[in-house]
Design a protein that fits this description.
heterodimer; A: 57 residues; mainly alpha; B: 140 residues; 4 helices
Chain lengths: 57, 140
Amino acid sequence: MERIIEKGLLVNTLVPALVLFGIAFMMVVIAYGMESVVHGVHDMFHDFRHVIGMPCH
Amino acid sequence: MAINLSCWKKNIFLCILAGVVWGWVAMAVNNLTGVSPLEMGLAHNLITFSMAGAVFGLVAGGVLTIVEKRLPTRSVVLKAAGVSASIWLLLRSAGVVLSMLQPVRYHVSTPESVQGFALALFLGCILGVLWKRGLSAVTE
């Protein structure tokens, strides 16, 4: 029974939380154009960043 | 706190859809206002705005899933708009700090910020409307 509860907890809480954290990190990388994380992301999303009002050069 | 996985899965598509539509609307609004002249071509921007919009939609939807029942208002649209605007404000606040640390690298523009905040509210509205319709369609 403990195993079932642990598995349920893992699937229902940990996995979605990690997925959301990963996507939120992607959002931050896009929003600030963090070249040190993903090469080329600054130029790729340059227009988007300006349109949504995020600071850029 | 456990997240309702079935609800989560059900709303992923809605979040992506809302985000992609929002990305295209953001492009159209910017073309109308002329706040930020776009440097890339239409095809490039259609792809990047769709991708970035989907990411923003997923984050807004994910946070909405977690905090939906804790927010004081009953309207899903208001809740989604509040969540979306809060995420934007958080990002923008960190951007202000970055611009203070590196003024040349991170330059702040007020007209772009006003447009961005309005667009963030609009993302919440799209997400809220789709969320409401999606949930009502499932419960019917």
